[in-house]
Amino acid sequence: MQQARAAYEAAVQSRILQEQSVQVELETFNVGLSTNYLVIQYQTVLAQARSTEVASKGAYVKAKLALDRATASTLETNRVSIQEAKDGHVSGRRRESRIRSRGVQAVNERR
Fold first, then answer.
1. 59 with 10: CB under 8 angstroms?
2. pLDDT digits (tens, 9 = 90+) for 71-91
3. What is the pLDDT at residue 104?
4. CA-CA distances (angstroms) from residue 83 to 86, 94, 105?
């Protein structure tokens, strides 16, 4: 799982750098010192970096799920209580708030 996370973090950094490269190349093009061919090449590399980021995030999520399964902590990770299910009672904890917190965490990780 650590390798998958490291690969994802590297892919995020690569994408950020490629976005900066495209921006610089566009500015160079706007002042007449570059060609549209070079701009398209940089944009192609950026698209590949984005694709790699998505694929590595998927691999990271799969690794986390595999770890949860192997350690029998899937229910705990997803805050599922067997007792609450048996009693037919659902606590005030909502899944949406956890999803939102993951989104905020992911945004903070990118900074």
1. no
2. 888 888 888 888 887 888 777
3. 47
4. 5, 17, 30
In order, the DSSP letters of 54-71 are HHHHHHHHHHHHHHHHHT
Nearest to 38 by CA among 51, 21, 50, 52: 21
Question: Which residues touch 81 (CB under 8 Å, ≥6 apart)?
Answer: 75, 91
Predicted local confidence at residue 76, as pLDDT:
85
Rounded Cα distance, 11 and 2, in Å: 14
| CB contact set of 74 (below 8 Å; sequence gap of 6+) | 65, 68
pLDDT digit string (tens) for 45-75? 999 999 999 999 999 999 999 988 888 888 8
Half-sphere exposure of 24 toward its Cβ, with a 13 Å CA cutoff? 8
Q: In the block, which residue shows the tokens 């993951």?
A: 102
Answer whether residue 103 shows pLDDT above 80: no
Q: How many domains does the chain have?
A: 1
Domain that holds residue 46: 2-78
